[in-house]
Each structure stands twice: as structure tokens, then as C-alpha cells.
Amino acid sequence: MFARLARALFGSANDRTLKAYQRRVPEINALEPAVQALSDEQLRHRTVEFKERLEKGETLDGLLPEAFAVCREASRRVLGKRHFDVQLIGGMVLHGGRIAEMRTGEGKTLVATLAVYLNALSGKGVHVVTVNDYLARRDAEEMSILYTFLGLTTGVIVPNLSDGERREAYAADITYGTNNEFGFDYLRDNMKYSLADMVQRPFNHAIVDEVDSILIDEARTPLIISGPADDSSDLYRSVDDVVVKLVEEPDVYDKDEKLRSVTLTEHGSHRVEALLAEAGVLQEGGLYDIHNVAVVHHVQQSLRAHTLFTRDVDYIVREGKVVIIDEFTGRMMDGRRYSDGLHQALEAKEHVEIQQENQTLASITFQNYFRLYPKLSGMTGTAMTEADEFAEIYHLDVVEIPTNLPVQRIDTDDEVYLTAAEKFSAVADLIKDINKTGQPILVGTTSIEKSEYLSRILTQRGIQHNVLNARQHEKEAIIIAQAGAPGAITIATNMAGRGTDIKLGGNIEMLVKASTEGVEDDAQRDSVEQNIRAIVEEHHEEVHKAGGLYVIGTERHESRRVDNQLRGRSGRQGDPGNSRFFLSLEDDLIRIFASDRMGAMMQKMGLKEGEAIVHPWLNKALEKAQKRVEARNFDMRKNTLKYDDVMNDQRKEVYAQRKEYMATEDLSGVIAELREHTIEDLVHAHIPEKSFAEAWNTEGLTKEVSRVLNLDLPIADWAKEDGMDSEGVIERIMAEAAKAQAARTANMGPELMRLIEKQVVLTTFDAVWKEHLHGLDQLRQGIGLRAYGQRDPLNEYKQEAFQMFTAMLDDMRIRVTETMCRIQAVSEPPPFPVINTETSGPSEEPAGLFAQGTTGSEIPAPGPMAGFPSMAPMSLSAPRPQAVPAGEEPDAATLQRWNAETPRNALCPCGSGLKFKHCHGRLV
């Protein structure tokens, strides 16, 4: 009550924020006459002036009014579009590092040009992030005309670009691209072996289009670059055959649809164990014996695939591949794959080729990637419902921008039916009635399966319509362009992020583009365009009189944002329109989250078959259910972020250290330091502090020095010397190791040795980091069980992750030392492998490495001598001399040859498996 009273007196926080921005609008408008008087050349030269003023110390905020006025005038001249006052406010919000919520059709793409132009003046680059490649290309193509006119350069990051093309695009003042492309380029850059090979510049400012889709809906989706793991496709098929039989039986598993989890019951565990043994999958022991852990994992993933994932809802099968469907946009996520073997289980379920499993080499979530930008802002049609999450996770405020013209859309209360069949029948009846008036209709469904079910009903009734779902992905732009034509009926799985406005009467630009494709004659193109414009204007008036676009929702989504996005397609720019949602008690949202309360309400009202209940109370009850789901999802994302923050801190350290190594020309000092630390640890592990020589483990230390440093030293003799202590042993070993390293450097040449040192440090760092990531994944999976022991899983995870990180650095130090002590030159260069970065998650596992979530390109692997083909390559082990036939002793000449060719710590050429010095090396 007091909150409502305060809002009435002082306005909401959003109102107060808008007032602060609105004060600057008259200042920008006052500059318009002077800017309009400038010639094109003078207008373009203002960009140069702005840059000079910035260099002299002026701020971007100080330049804002003039820069906005220049950008608006340039847009009017080259695009034929003048920014409205509310769009100027939107530009200020974006420049201020906030989120601008603007209704569909209010020109978000044009609004972004204001903040992009202003921030690009600094020369540090601005990234404009879109949800798909089509929008990135389209926006870059359309808006680059404006930026080029103003003297700025524009680049676009799309799949299949070479590193050179990517570097050029990132070097531009403004770079368009998808969140996946930006994220994977960041990960790939941190796997490069030279600073010159990296493509991205230091981050400056990112403006995210459809910010709620990227930072909320995809927040828990990690970007993962992976390498192939062991092939277990036969095991997936065998387990799938068992699970197919298992799920047909009663009481074998418990399913929780709220948490999307499934577990075997005690009866189910016994049953699956029997079926696996019968199928020959379990060779010995029980299902939960330690050597059958992999089988348990395969069973669990196959059970999830069969019980929680539905074809044509969660994924489709296309061209022999399982393709994930984005639950929020209805788009195919080509190449994106489920991790941890789930995607392989789906492939086994659908009897398509099972792709190889993968192991994480590098990963980052969108939450942590976008928090790397010093300045982040975004725009969307629906963000207020998630304002708390944006503020808590990203420190971004949401500002609701008023529409340029009042919204005239009429939103009707929801209709609720008992069954889904009754609901779809009522939807079809309404479509038939509205279609008679000529009013265009957009029908939103939650899955491909339901869109095709409704399509069959309309076809049976003889109603012409278009279907837009993941199967018709290629026709998307054309279908949307015509969705506002008189009498048009469009069924869409989801309209979130489609990126093309539904304009009453039809989309002139899209229709002209489609109709003039291939037409060379200018006069003919102009004639076609004029005819289309006349027809569309006539249709616009017809549709306007009929009542505008009618939006029908066939189900409520878990998120209110998605429902609002669907509604927002109608009533753009002050157009008339209608919206109505149809629901049933069989819908997922009601069945899982609101069934008890809703069912009781229906019984009280005496609902009969074929009847619907329409009441504002129902709307409020559904909204409460949606709020509960949103709060639960927020908690899950927040919890994920807490764990990912632990890895993120370690990732930052690793990547910063890696860049430092790449930037350092001479790493010999680093190598020496690592070697000295390793020697100290070896000695302290075998010689207790302040102990007598009799207590020293000289034999163990000698073996370890031989294994790690490749040195055969008389440590036992040193121990007998008077006054010798651990520090003396350390000094002698260090001196011998340094002498051996100096000899190797002299043999190979300083230039080659510097290159080898850098390659060894970087490749070893990558190897231990990869193993560390795998260890963290394993730790994360089971850490929740610590809660049963009254321990906080997050604190336990932080402590153990830190211990693992420390152990990783120790392991790296030892590995680098071992490798550098065994470097030798050989005459034959080893063949270079190829790193393959494939699409998301990954779609086709190549022989090399591949990336989850991005498009494919090939880059040469960072081999031992990458970038220096003229130099002799390095080998980490010497070639073994030819062994003698089994059972025969070598003659004296062979022994002498072996002695000359075989290092003492290498395996003996006789094939015994012993080191040469402990085998035939003793005979020489």
C-alpha cells in the first residue's frame, strides 16, 4: 500500500531514470538545424574532430549530444530513418551500460547505432552481439552503410572465416557477430602459441541484442572446446537395447519433471542388472562394482534420453543427425551437442551414427564471458521480469523505454479447457472465425510436435496456413515477411529472436528483395518495387481496418518473457491488434507447477467437457506459477555461477600466465626456476631437514634425479663427504642440471632452444590445464553428496579445487623439467596433426580438436616447430636402436653400438623393458 502511494507521489525508479535522460533530448534536438546544414563531407569530418577531442582529454559523455545529433542526421541521409526522441533515450541507456527494454517494432537495431557510433570513437572497438548468424550479417550489412558514411569501419564474425579474416573483423571499429562466435574466438585465442596468431583485441564495450535470450536463457550453457575421448559407441548401443526393454516395465524408475531428473528404483536397479548380464554387457560382479562405473553412467544417460527427451520437442533428427531445438526460440541449434554422453545416448535411441565422445580442453559460460567486458549493455523487448537477475549477476539496470506511439493492442484473458484436444479444437474454431474478417493471425506453439498437430487440424478443415518451425528454418524470412498480409495464418514454434518484424500488409523490403533477385535491369527493378509498395500499402489499410495482427498462444511458457515476446509481435508502432492465450489442464506448466490449485478451482466452477473458463483470477494464478518457475531457474543459474566462478578465477590466472609466456622472448629463466624448484622438492622429499646422512634415502633420490633430470649422479658418495647437507646436495644437483642444459643449448643453438622452451612450456601448460578441467568436472558431479555429511558443497568444492590447482602447477613444473632434460634433435620431422574446430558442442568429431557451439575452420596444430618449418624439429625421446632377435644375446660390436646410441636412462634395445643402464648397459 505504501509502495503504491510512493509511486503515485514520486513516480517509480524507472520514471525517475527516464526523466534524467529526457533532460538531454532537447539539447540534442537543438543541434539538429546546424547539423542538417552541413555537407556530407563536413558531416563525415565531424568524426575526425570527435576523435581529436577525445585524445585531448574530452569524455564520451561530453561528446554525447553532438555525436548523437551527427549520427541521427547521417541516418536520415543514408538510411532514410530519423531517430525518434524515445530512440535517443534508448541510445543513452545503452551508452550508460544499462539494458534498454523496448517493445517489438520500436527500432532497437537503429537505437544501437547511436551508442555504437559514440563508443567506437575511442578506437578501442565495439562488439554488437546478436543471437544468430542471419541477424549478424543482416545488421552489419544494413548499418555498415551508416558507419562507412561517418568514416568508421565495420566487420562481421560469421562461421567459416579464416584467422586472418577474423583478425581483420576484430580490428574494425565496430564488429558484429553471435555470442557463440565471440566466445569461441576468446577460447581459441587462449589456445594459440603466439600473440601474433590471436584474433581478438582487448575487450572494450559489448552491446547485446536480445540480451535476455543470451544472458538469461543461455546463461547455464557452457562454451566448450573439446578433444576426442575414447570411443564407446558399441556400449551406447548395447545399453540402449537394454533400456528400451526396461522403460516398458512398471516401477523401474522415478521421474521428476520439475527438476528434469530420473533415477532407477531399487527394483529397477535389480532389473537392469539382470538385463545387462543377459545381454553380456556386465561381464562380472554387480552393476555398482567399481569396474562397472562406466556402465552405470551409460545406463543413466540412456534412461534420461528415453524418459526426459522427446523427439520433435527437445530435438529433431535431420540428415542422420540429432539436432537440438532451442526451447526458447524454436530454432535448430546446429552443431550444439549435449555433453557427458547424453547426446550419444540420444543418437543410440534414434539409431543414427553415434559420434565420438569428447574431453574438455577449454570452457567458459556466457555469464563469465560477458563479464569480461569493462562496459556491457543490452536491448530487448522483455527484460523487466528478469531485472533482479540482471542486477545481481551482471550489475546491469533495466530501463523501460516508452513506446513512440501508444500501444493499441487488446490483450484478452486466457481460456482454460480440461484437455489439450478441446483446447486445439477451440483454437481452430477461433482461427476460422477471424480468418473470415481478413485479419492476419499468428499462432504460437511450444514445440514442433504441437505446431504440426495444429497444422493437421487446420488442413482437415480446409484452412490454408504456413508453418514456421525448425523444419522450415530456411523459409523463415519469407514466411515472416508475409505473416502480416490480409488473411495470412502463420503457425510458429516460437517468435523469440526471429529478428524480422511482422508489418501489417507485408514487409516491403523482404518482398522486394525476394521479387527482384536475379533481375539485372534497373528500370525493371524499380517497376517491380513500385508495384509491391502499392500492393503492400493497400493491404496495410485493409489489415488496419480489420483490426491488425491477431496473436494466439496455444500454451503458456515457463517464462513470462517468452509469452510477452509472442504478444509483442502484435501492436507494433501504434498498430491495432489482439492477443489471446488458450490453455488446458494437460499443459506442462499447469500439470507440473499449478495442477493442484488449478484443478480444485476447475471443480468448484463445475467445468464440463468442451467448456472454457475465462477469469482474471486464472491469469493471476498462472502468473504466480510462472514466477515460481522463474525464481527456481534463477536459483539454479545463480548456483551454477557460484561453482563456475571458482573455475573462472583459475581460468583467468592460467590465461594471463599463458599470455605472459607468449609475450616473453626468452623463457630460459623460467625453465631454470621451474627446474630449481623441482630439485628442491626432490631433495627435501628424500633428505629430512637437519638429519644425519644415515637417515638419507640416497637410493630413492638417485632414481628420482635420474627419472626427472636425466642425470646419473653419485649422490650416495656425496652423502659420505664431511659437512654435506641437503643444501649442498641441492647446489650440486642444480649445477649439474644447469651444465647439462647448457650443453643441450650449445648443441642445438640458442635460437632453436628458445623456441623449444616456449613450445614445451605452452604445450605442457595446456596438457595439465586440460586434465585439471576434467578433474574439476568429476569433482563437480559428486560434490553435492557432501551435503549429506552436513558439509557445504560449495565450500568443499572451493577448497578441493584450490588444492587441485596447486597440484596442477606442481605437476606442470615437473613435466616441463622432465621434458627439457630429454630434448634431442632428430633428422626426421614428425607429421603435424590438424586442429579442427567444429560446430557447437561438437557436431562432427574430427581426428583433431573440435569446439562446441561454433562453426568449423581448420588451423594448423601448435606442433613442436609450428611457424618455423626450416628448423630441425624436436623430439621428446631418442630413436631406439634395432633390437636383436628374441632369445639371442648381442655380440660385442652390437653392445658397443648400443652404448654409443642409447641414453643410459632409455629402455634397453634388447626388449627387456628395463633401462639400458640396468640391463645391457652394465655389460659395456
* Strand residue content: 5-15%
**Are there runs of 5+ residues with pLDDT below 50, and where?**
830-887
What is the 3D form?
A: globular
Measured on Cα atoms, how large is the radius of gyration?
33 Å
Give structural notes.
It is a single chain. This protein is of the alpha/beta class. The protein is built from 32 helices and 26 strands. Strand 18, helix 20 (476-482) and strand 19 form a beta-alpha-beta unit. Mean pLDDT is 82; it is low at 830-887.
Quick overview of this protein structure:
The chain has 924 residues and is an alpha/beta fold. Helix content is 51%, strand content 12%.
Give the topology, please.
Layout: H1 2-10, H2 13-22, H3 25-36, H4 40-55, H5 60-78, H6 85-95, E1 99-101, H7 108-120, E2 126-130, H8 133-149, E3 154-157, H9 163-171, E4 174-178, H10 179-189, E5 205-209, H11 211-217, E6 222-228, H12 233-246, E7 253-256, E8 261-264, H13 266-279, H14 293-307, E9 315-318, E10 321-325, E11 332-333, H15 342-349, E12 358-365, H16 366-370, E13 375-380, H17 387-394, E14 398-400, E15 408-411, E16 415-417, H18 420-435, E17 441-444, H19 448-460, E18 466-468, H20 476-482, E19 489-492, H21 508-515, H22 522-546, E20 549-553, H23 560-567, E21 576-584, H24 588-605, H25 616-663, H26 668-686, H27 698-709, H28 715-719, H29 726-748, H30 750-782, H31 793-820, E22 824-825, E23 834-837, E24 850-852, E25 857-860, E26 874-875, H32 892-901
Parallel strand pairs: 1-13, 1-14, 2-4, 2-5, 3-4, 5-13, 15-21, 16-21, 17-19, 17-20, 18-19, 20-21
Antiparallel strand pairs: 6-12, 6-24, 7-8, 9-10, 10-11, 22-26, 23-25
Helix pairs in contact: 3-5, 4-5, 5-7, 6-7, 12-13, 12-14, 12-15, 14-15, 20-21, 21-22, 24-25, 25-30, 25-31, 26-27, 26-29, 26-31, 29-30, 30-31
